[in-house]
Amino acid sequence: MIGYLTPNYPLVAAFRTLTPTRSRPADRISRQIFKMAPKLSDYLPEDEIRASKGDLDRPISGLAMDSRRVLPGNLFFALPGRRADGNSFIDEAIQRGAVGIVAEKIPAATAARVTYIQVHDARRALAQVSQRYFGFPDKSLELVGVTGTNGKTTVTNLIKHLLSTSAQRVGLVGTVNYDLGARVVPSYRTTPESLELFGMLAQMRDAGCRQAAMEVSSHGIDQHRVLGMQFAVGVFTNLTRDHLDYHKTLDAYFEVKSRLFNGGIGTSPRAAVVNLDDEWGRRLAAEVPKHVRVVTFGESPEATVRAENVRLGFKGTALTLVWPEGRAEIESPFIGRYNVSNLLAAFAACYALGRDPAVIAIRLKSFPGVSGRMERIEEGQPYNVLVDYAHTDDALRNALGMLRAITPGRLFVVFGCGGNRDRTKRPLMTGAVQEFADFAWATADNPRGEQLAQIFSDMKAGVKAPDKITFVEDRRHAISLALDAAKPGDCLLIAGKGHETYQEFADTIVPFDDRQVVRELIGIKAIKPA
What's the CATH code of the domain at 416? Predict the structure, then answer.
């Protein structure tokens, strides 16, 4: 979280100069700073505390959930985790200057100068305290939360584009970056922890943003990262097989997603925008609470916002956009039927916010696209190269089915499966590729801590035409082989990593950008030997 949140440096400095044997600083400036400092008791009411030890009415300099980022005077939250227990880092947090500890149990050995607070659920407490600490920034913004397996990044970026004006900047929290109003910073997680989320929303509010679009992952919902957040609009794109290593079943996955709409995060959105072309979307639309306005979208004639007369092309898409009060002819640089769904989702979200549909329809035409989402690489080559983030069997099937229909020549694919993730989807991804591609190069994605041989073994279970696929360990080499095979009229899709600029291995992360690698290789291959 370095660079995402700015600490109160004067207050941290005042705590840093406070010696362990003194309860209050002696100098006048420090006394004034402490007088204005927030009190721990301001953010944790008694009815949320199971037990405590130490002074609750003490000043704090900020909040922390990572012991390595603790600054003097911080309140440290010891969060339970799948890999490590935050209680193991309490001593380190205290050594770094934490004056308060929030945990699900108070340690047997405690420090005299530290306040300990026991809560029922540390993650819930972090969300509640963070929201209060940053002054409920979500209530100052028209916040649009987008959830679903596929399309979140495209839809949030498109919503941001549609709502932005020359005088009004719109915040964004997503997979590619975080636009905080006054600055844009790289993203490290689709839906950050609640402390970072509320802190970033506060920066958007203070920078003058009045709207923000946010990708809301199932992990973010289940781990209380958006607990209590007030969304003006919730958007459901679709539900397909993904993250089943975490959720176990599609029904459990859907139950988590639906919390965004049914009050399961503590609040309900004012409006629910739901994909009526998706079977899980139809189920969700029927289950949304009565007090929440439902706006559906899709190509279904029953949808509130729908597309008619869709014409798909390699350079873009044309369609008739229909809403209750009117219709408009749209020509968009988007390609693919699933991007029609993304376009409808973003338009429907703005419609649910009360924006002028005619104005929004015009802005659809000028959307430049999203980095790493069907991003075309043009280096003068006589064939087409596209880089896309598709990393599920459903996303691959959608992408390749669309490209198959509009590609005059052969369709090639470079793809891989991430390590330490759902193994059951690997043969399904291979099967999806073999269903549409003339030839495929299976290679490394982000192996993480898993052996590539095991990943390949799982992927090979989906092979039905061995003569149409080869397995190449080095991703750069796989891309090079695919470029060598491409001829005029062919199309090469490089799938899985999209906007990512790195490759993740067991104990290291190395720079790797599919787009840059393609450009470099095309340039090298274009050099004719003397």
Answer: 3.90.190.20
Q: What is the mean pLDDT of residues 397-407?
A: 89
Report the distance separating Cα 385 and Cα 379, nearest Å: 9
User: Do residue 247 and residue 299 come from a single domain?
Assistant: yes
Q: Facing residues of 509 across strands?
A: 504
DSSP symbols for 436-493: H-SEEEE--S--BTS-HHHHHHHHHTT-S-GGGEEE-S-HHHHHHHHHHH--TT-EEE
pLDDT interval class at 398 (50, 70, 90): confident
Split at pLDDT 50, 70, 90, the class of 26 is low
DSSP 8-state secondary structure symbol assigned to residue 59: B
Q: How far is CA 408 from CA 249, 333, 373, 378, 487, in A?
A: 39, 19, 22, 18, 11
472 contact partners, CB below 8 Å, separation of at least 6: 441, 442, 443, 478, 481
Instruction: Print the domain residue range for 441.
Output: 375-526
Q: Is residue 2 part of a domain?
A: no
pLDDT digit string, tens, across residues 266-296: 999 999 999 999 999 999 999 999 999 999 9
Q: 77 has which bridge partners? A: 102
Whether residue 199 sits in one domain with residue 316: yes
Q: Which of 313, 331, 364 is the last residue of a domain?
A: 364
Which tokens is 21 given?
């044997």
Q: Which pair of tokens denotes residue 260?
A: 């965004």
The helix-helix angle for 452-460 and 425-436 (nearest 10°) equals: 60
DSSP codes, 144-179 = EEEESSSSHHHHHHHHHHHH-BTTB--EEESSSEEE
pTM over 0.85: no
Number of domains in the chain: 3
158 φ, ψ (degrees, to nearest 5): -70, -40
List the helix and strand counts (H, then E) for the chain: 17, 24
Strand pairing class (271-275; 233-236): parallel
One domain for residues 123 and 185: no
- Pairing mode, strands 502-504 and 509-511: antiparallel
The first and second tokens of residue 105, run together, are: 């149990």
Instruction: State the Cα–Cα distance between residues 497 and 485, nearest whole angstrom.
Output: 21
3-state helix, strand, coil in the chain (%, to 5): 35, 20, 40
